[in-house]
Amino acid sequence: MWQTLTDLLTYLGVIIAGILVWAALSPIETMGWWAGWFGDTIHDGGIKPGNETPRLRPNPDAFLLFMSGVGKATGETLSFREQEFLRRLARAVPRLVIVDDIFPYSVNNMPLTGQPVFARLWRWALQRKLNGPRLAGYLINLRNIWQVLISADKRYGPVYNQSLAEVLLHSLLRYRYDPDARKPIFIMGYSGAGQFAVGCAPYLKEWLQAPVYVISLGGVFASDPGLLVADHVYHLIGDRDRSHRYGLLAPGRWPFSVASDWNRARRQGKVTIIRMGDMDHSGRGGYLDHQRYLPDGRAFVDKTVETIAQIIATHTGHTPAPQLQAPVHVAQAA
Amino acid sequence: MELPSLGETIRQALALRESIFLAVQQSPQGLWTALMVVGLAGLSQALGQSLVLFINHVRPRRFILAVAASVVSYMAGYLLWAGSVWLVGTYAFNRDVAWVTVAAVVGLAYAPQVLAFFELTPFFGSPFGVLLSLWTLLAILVAVRVALDLEMWQAVLTGGLGWLLIQLWRYTLGRPIYALGRWMERIAAGVELRYRAKDVPNLRRRPVWLTNMDQWRTRRATAKKPAPPPADPLPKNIHDKDATA
After folding, report:
1. Beta strands at A212-217 and A185-190: parallel, antiparallel or unpaired
2. So what's the pLDDT on residue A111?
3. Residue A69 sits in the same domain as residue A138
4. Chain A within 8 Å of B60 (Cβ-Cβ)?
5. Are A244 and A146 part of one and the same domain?
6. I need a labelling partner for B44 at 20 to 30 A (CA). Which of A34, A54, A312, B74 fits?
7. Which of B123, B213, B236 sits opposite A179 (nearest CB)?
8. Distance of residue A243 Cα from the nearest chain B Cα, in angstroms
9. Do the Cβ atoms of A293 and A73 come closer than 8 Å?
10. Comparing C-alpha atoms, which of B122, B201, B220 is closest to residue A206?
């Protein structure tokens, strides 16, 4: 009995040590990219160049870059809820080009399953995620969490966020974004990708000199300089969502860090926190659930779609849908 | 006196156990053990702070060389530190202790820096680095106290005076030696180490995208429908390699 317990603790210790070493090594990819070790190619997100046509809109008013949460392994593995949400959003805002084939957890849009060395491991993990046992699939989540932490780190963040901004710029150009027209860009980060949305906003704005808005859907983000640079930040949070609170691990998000980017952005009225009602972070009861309904009869996903459509309408001069109220600036902390 | 294994020695030093510092002082292998601890700490710290090498575009092979040079430099710093502690102990507190003995104990005090590799960890690495510095400071105080048989306040004073001595050396006679060290690191890295960690927020990879954009758009506009996709719509080498502050 005692021996078994000791063995168990030893295995647990080895696993924890392995995870810590893995975490420590995780910035090598980002920094190696900066140093030029891995070349400069930016990969397409599964949609080959030239095949973006079905998603293009004539005369678009705005572009929305959608980045998914930490469970993603490639640019294509959007869950059915995410796909349904984007489909409804596209219908609600007909002159919006939605770019959804971004894999933001890599410096060059390369999916995990396409990596030169570990592709097999990630394919296996993706299969486990889809078919079980799901615990093994969480390797992907863990790996992607390191990337979020890299983006939030003051040492690596400026490098990672630049790499991601280049990926986003690459995607915008693939979707026929005209830099001279300076159409508004909405960077939408769901869950952990909220940090990416905030982090890469300054670089996109610097390069394109266009309006850049951040939409965080239950986003986890630190106090990043991007909060001050983005034209506006919308932070959508549900009452049941606890995951977005991981962002409060960053001292800059604490109320008494008065000089932090987060608190300065809030004082300048650049952040609007939108309460989404009785919604959870993901899955059933989450922001994108189309089978749960609000007291007024709208499905959760429709409320989310309408809120985002309203935000886009505010900045593009679209006529807002009549049943929607303007986003409210919430004064208290998230 | 027999020393436990290297791992166990480090573990006990991390726990700031005085007995292990005494054991290193009295053991004939004490100095070698200390040198191994300092070497490991140097390697770990060089990796933990390798951000500077990356931001200066050091190539992979040169990266290994630069890390090796950093370890050599770290060992030299250790010898200097041990020497200054010995000098203060001998002349300020009249302790008659061999330099080698002081060096062995002070070397073991570098044990917390063996974990400096984990400073690489995103987000949590920086606060961990602060924790490690405090931990090392405590280990050095314990080591100095044991090595020179001092009271705690005397150990604190010795540490402070030793630090002052090093600063004096650094800005006077030691200046050419520090310059030599920097030259060695630059040669090993193969590039000018122009940027420091504090420069990171101001660094930019200037993509040629913006200058090439017109050309790229024209190419796409003139292409037949559906637009024949080039293998890569953008040139392979799309970035200006020179990061500018």
Report:
1. parallel
2. 79
3. yes
4. yes
5. yes
6. A34
7. B213
8. 18
9. no
10. B201
